[in-house]
Amino acid sequence: MMNPSMPKNPQDPRKVNPNFPIYNGKNACKLYKDLTDQVIIITGSSNGIGKSTARLLTFMGPTIVFACRDRAKTLAVIEEIQQETKNKNLVFMRLDLSDLRFVREFAKDFNSRYQKLNILINNAGISMDERRLSKDSYEMVFATNYLGHFYLTNLLLEALKRSHQAEW
Question: How confident is the prediction for the chain on average, in pLDDT?
Answer without folding.
Answer: 86
